Amino acid sequence: MRAVVLGAESVTFTADYPAPIPAVGEVAVRVLCAGVCETDLQLVRGYMGFRGILGHEFVGVAESGPFRGRRVVGEINASCGTCELCRQGLANHCPSRSVLGILNRDGAFADVVCLPQTNLHPVPDEISTRSAVFTEPLAAAFQIPAQVPLRSGQKVVVLGDGRLGNLCAQVLAREGCSVTVVGKHARKLALLSQLGLATVPLESLSRERRADLVVDCTGSPTGLATALEIVRPRGTIVLKTTVAGPQTLSLAPVVIDEVTIVGSRCGPFPRALVALRERQIDVESLIDGVYPLEEATTALDRAHTEPVLKFLLAVDPSSPPP
Ligand SMILES: [Zn+2]
Ligand SMILES: [Zn+2]
Which residues contact 166 (CB under 8 A, 6 or more apart)? Predict the structure, then answer.
């Protein structure tokens, strides 16, 4: 089958990767469309030391199981189901989990991907394939209200105007927060303004410490430092992006100002699917291009070097995303 494979030296497209055989409890999914994410770009730069097929944001058609023949999206953590964390309902933190296209499990930039049946969610007919690709990152944005109590009108600053920052800002505004997005890219900030969100270019950001909640979606080592400069005493910082490599910064302000720092990763797929079905969140405006799978390395290069929002990969050439 065709696949986009991260090796020791580089990312390559291959037309003859062995098709995966689903393990017991797993379902093979014929991939229709996949999304390029910041995590993919970090993996290419060595984050997690991953080797194998990239890709964790996808829509496909289940080839077996109760959703056979239907479009599905898939949660990316494949857990053991028996350890203490799994039994406590924290399967996303299972110590022996594999993670689709990120850790010990081939991903979705391929004709076929395998996941446990329990990871799959059918896509409602009202959601287009190209919108459904956003289920995974949108679920990650909905993890913030799942973790942090929010008050209507509370001052939220989202650092980062990229893919995830945009989705987090839309979700938090919908939850009733007063959201300002800080970014470096005029075009991305203009898009957020069109969506009705307040924006500030990074160079104009006032370093007053007034934000109740700061969400770091920068993917940059400077994100947390900036967050600490603007969060109010007793405020909360949510770290939404991972940064490859160690970071150095003084944590004294965290103690002195009793700041709460919350790490936040994967979120609730059912909530994201409802938001897409009800058109509560705009995702289509984030799509900056659609590439055939054969040109995935071009899409990855461009996503790394140019200020684009979302690139999709049309994996199934017979059914390009509508
Ligand atoms: Zn992602
Ligand atoms: Zn487990």
Answer: 181, 188, 191, 192, 195, 286, 309
For residue 138, how far is its CA from the centre of ligand 1 (angstroms)?
A: 9
Q: What is the CATH number of domain 138-263?
A: 3.40.50.720
pLDDT tens readout for residues 240-289: 987 767 888 888 989 999 999 999 999 999 999 999 999 999 999 999 99
Ligand positioned closest to the Cα atom of 87: 2
Assigned fold of 3-134+283-314: Quinone Oxidoreductase; Chain A, domain 1 (3.90.180)
For the CA of 81, the nearest ligand: 2
Q: pTM surpassing 0.85? A: yes
- The Å distance, Cα 255 to ligand 1 centre, comes to 32
